[in-house]
Amino acid sequence: MDLKKLVAKQGMKLMQDPRVAKVMQDERVMKGLMKALTARAKAQESVDEAVQSAAKRFGLVTKEEVRELKRNLRKLETQLKKAQRDAEKAKGEGSDRG
Question: How many independent structural domains does the chain possess?
């Protein structure tokens, strides 16, 4: 079992404990958790921006650029399949006339 699943499983066990439920109802605890989550999100955003900046500086491809390329490739593959079907259909219609 990978670490993420293990942590999630243990977290679910903890959430079922009445003592933990009582602590989670405390407004101070909830505010602290929200601050921690917000801080984590801001830190992740800063790291992502730094990585993107470094990638541009060194001429490397970013995740977003790869995502966009994959999206464009899927579109092109779909268009190609449609064009092939249309060509086959037109070829079939042409042989019916002759």
Answer: 2
